[in-house]
Known about the structure:
This protein is α+β, with helices and mostly antiparallel strands. The protein contains four helices and three strands.
Amino acid sequence: MKKIILVYNSKDFEPMFIKVSDVSLDQELANIFRETLSGEGAKIHLWVKKMWKSELEVDAYVYLDDIEDSDVNPLVDDCQQRYGIGKRYKTKTQKENVLALKEHIHRDTGGST
């Protein structure tokens, strides 16, 4: 079973990356941080370095859990489209969806990362 994880920073809680994982949330974050510190150069690692340089925390949220492998790609596509993740410019609907999601994440995490 897989999970869809949204990665965001502690300043605005806006999801910036989607990760699909079969490990725990804590382990996935540890993997991202380990890869970042070892010099990996993918977009997510460069973004993490930028957040750290700006003294912001990087955290993640389990968006969906217990997903069958065959359902992962359509659900990731839906998530990207719904929230405009990875896009510089978002539609009005995507902005509204992001705002609602940010409020949900903020509430669900107790307002802290």
